[in-house]
Amino acid sequence: VQLQASGGGLVQAGGSLRLSCAASGSFRSIGDMGWYRQAPGKQRELVATVTRLGITEYGDSVKGRFAISRVNAMNTVYLQMNSLKPEDTSVYYCSARAYGIDYWGQGTLVTVSS
Questions:
Q1: What is the residue-wise DSSP string for the chain?
Q2: Mapped to the 3 state alphabet, what secondary structure does 51-70 carry?
Q3: Residue in 50, 24, 13 with CA at minimum distance from that of residue 35
Q4: 61 phi/psi in degrees, rounded to 5
Q5: Of 92, 110, 98, 87, residue with least CA distance to 5
Q6: Which of 1, 6, 14, 51 shows a CA-CA span of 20 to 30 A to 22?
Q7: Cβ–Cβ < 8 Å for 45, 38
Q8: pLDDT tens for residues 51-99?
Q9: Cα dist. 47→11, 24, 25, 40, 99 in Å?
Q10: What percentage of the chain has pLDDT greater than the value 90?
Q11: Residue 69: burial class (beta carbons within 10 Å; 0-12, 13-18, 19+)
Q12: Is the dihedral of CA 41, 68, 81, 21 positive or negative?
């Protein structure tokens, strides 16, 4: 399974960005998909996950501001990020589970300026 993320960039505080991540490769179906982030000197943390049925989970710091969604037919997961804060600055990684294995994308940098 290969994951290709896109959509990162530089945005001012209060702005919005949308991340996308598409899974490709030889698999029958993708299970849970999600986004995690890791800032310099910090541990990787949960941003949001979504099951095939659309059940979502969010990290406390992004609840009410971020929204995760997916299109199963396209094996793609999205992260809509609104009301961005400087503390959201991080490398965002998409993840996907297939055959009991967690796969990771290469990461996309999101920088929020104050």
A1: -EEEEE--EEEETT--EEEEEEEESS-S----EEEEEE-TTS--EEEEEE-TT--EEE-GGGTTTEEEEEEGGGTEEEEEE-S--GGG-EEEEEEEEETTEEEE---EEEEEE-
A2: CCCCCEEECHHHCCCEEEEE
A3: 50
A4: -75, -10
A5: 92
A6: 14
A7: yes
A8: 999 999 999 999 999 999 999 999 999 999 999 999 999 999 999 999 9
A9: 18, 22, 25, 16, 23
A10: 92
A11: middle
A12: positive
Which amino acid is it at 93? Y
Q: What whole-number distance in Å separates Cα of residue 16 and Cα of residue 82?
A: 4
Query: Which tokens is 21 given?
Result: 């991540």
